[in-house]
Amino acid sequence: MTRDFWKAFARNRGAVIGLGILALVVLCALLADFIYPASPWEMTAMPFQPPGSEDALLGSDTLGRDIAAGIVHGARVSLLIGLTSTAVALLIGVTLGAVAGFHGGRVDDAIMRFTELFQTIPNFVLAVVLVAIFTPTIANIVIAIAIVSWPPLARLARGEFMALRSREFVQAAVTTGQGTGTIIFRHILPNSLSPIIVSASLMVATAILLESSLSFLGLGDPNVMSWGYMIGAARTVIRQAWWMSFFPGIAILLTVLALNLVGEGLNDALNPKLARKGKA
Amino acid sequence: MAGIASFLGRRLFKAVFILLAIVVINFLLVRAAPGDPAMVMAGEAGAADEQYVQQLREQFGLDRPLHVQLGIYVRDVAMGDLGYSYRQQRPVWDLIADRLPATLILTGTAFALALAAGIALGTLAAMNVGRWSDSAITVLALVSYATPIFWVGLMLILLFSVQLGWLPAFGYESIGAGYTGFERVLDIARHMVLPVVTLGLFYMAVYARLTRASILEVRDMDFVKTARAKGLGETRIVLKHVLRNAILPVITFAGIQAGHLVGGSILIETVFAWPGIGRLAFDAVLQRDYQVLLGIFFVTSVLVIVFNILTDLVYSLVDPRIEVA
């Protein structure tokens, strides 16, 4: 099973490259304190040093902080928020979707109305409002991102549960008198896992983009260095110092791209039947 | 025609329901905003003695039970009163109404261009599956998927305004230039190029991918084989037979995406100093002007609902199979 999985995953060259980039980003996040022991907020160079200077590899910002140090430390926040907010969104979305798909009828109706409501609300605006009102801390940012991103997961889980609900093995479990909880967790959930995993991996990418957008607007946690904040702070000096916003942007781009590629690779490996058409 | 009317009626009913829910969420958020609203108002008005605060409480019904307050709030919103911004000394609705046209022009143009270019590119990619143009379009889509739009905006400014000096970097029109008539339109159009391209690029990628996938799905269906067997030309088959069917999921998705587009305009307007409600939202965030922020939240939600109804109508026109009744 695992060997087949890796074989199918490795057949997608993009996915392997993505995994490589992702590993590098994770390494940066883990070893940030070794690579740049000083706080990324500390002045370590003259302000406005261009890239390639002696004391700042990728240049320094308006206050003399090292851009490279900021990027390495920023990897932590991006990954942390991307992963935890996806986990929370999964918890909300899959729970609601599972309940709706499993029970059907009125429960399904009510939950789907609720989901529709959240899909109508412009999600980035809601995230901005939530973070602004409840003050920007990591926990609030995570919750805000989760609140605006769970609906697609709920729809997906609902569809899977509805389809599996009528299958023989589930019916058999119902007939043998197993409890609802057992049926959901032991029988249906494991079988609906692969599309959910694929969506979740793509959602981590979206969450990282959302986080960077929030911190670009000045709604990031003021205690941690993040890529979006670096770009937002350098926005006004773009004419004099391109590097301050260029390199953090590349970091976001590569990370999100890697996650998307890995997501596609997972899709190929986990849903071989649905392998995308036209991929000669 | 009666079918469309009753369809619209049901959509409107649903829209009102969603709107009501949004108003309730809005109300809860107003109450959740930090600080006692009366104190905040008093503070912003520059006077905070106990008597004045008490008077404010009574004036705004803040001393009454929560459900009564909710009732008052719903009534106010229904009459177009979205609150008062003490920071700017103006009613929230006036502030938003001033800025709304600029945002509608920006997002509307970006949306139309993104849809047209996305469908064209997606069709091109699907017709050349496996060839270099397909790969190029797929890579372009992947990259724009992964790029934060505010960063794209900054980089475009860097290239086209700072380096090449071709296009203005920010604003809505040249201040003090005194253009009139056609010259003014041209001037505004020049200012629009960069923000529109930035906002549209991401959505173009989304629609291109979707169109490509959708065409590949339709391409092998029987009616296409029939058309081919009749000896129709490839272009005609693609345009008249394949695209017409393949475009439906794209329209559905485009409708759902409307909300994202409005959200994206907050970022774009911040980068390009575009005087729309997105920029207003950014200023409100900086000043923690919650009344304005929540007003924008409400108005953008209404915009999305209106847009969704429009998409449904377009959908029913494009696909006669859909029963609107």
| Estimated helix fraction of chain B | over 70%
Beta strands of chain B, count? 2
Q: Report the span from N to C terminus of chain B.
A: 9 Å
- Structural Rg of chain A: 22 Å
Low-confidence stretches of chain B: none
Please count the helical segments of chain A.
12
The coarse overall form of chain B would be globular
Reading the helices and strands of chain B in chain order gives HHHHEEHHHHHHHH
Low-confidence spans of chain A: pLDDT under 50, at least 5 residues? 275-280
The largest chain-to-chain contact, stated as pair and per-chain residue counts, equals: A-B, 46 and 56 residues
Q: Beta-sheet strand percentage of chain B?
A: under 5%
What does this structure look like?
The complex is a heterodimer of chains A (280) and B (325). The radius of gyration of chain A is 22 Å and the shape is elongated. The C terminus of chain A is likely disordered. In chain A, helix 2 crosses helix 12, helix 3 packs across helix 6 and helix 6 packs across helix 10. Helices cover 73% and strands 0% of the residues of chain A. Chain A is an all-alpha fold and 280 residues long. With 325 residues, chain B is mostly helical. Chain B is 78% helix and 1% strand. Chain B is built from 12 helices and 2 strands. A two-stranded antiparallel sheet of chain B has the order 1-2. In chain B, a hairpin with a 4-residue loop joins strand 1 and strand 2. The radius of gyration of chain B is 24 Å and the shape is globular. The mean pLDDT of chain B is 81. Chains A and B meet through helix 4, helix 5, helix 10, helix 11 and helix 12 of A and helix 1, helix 6, helix 7, helix 8 and helix 10 of B.
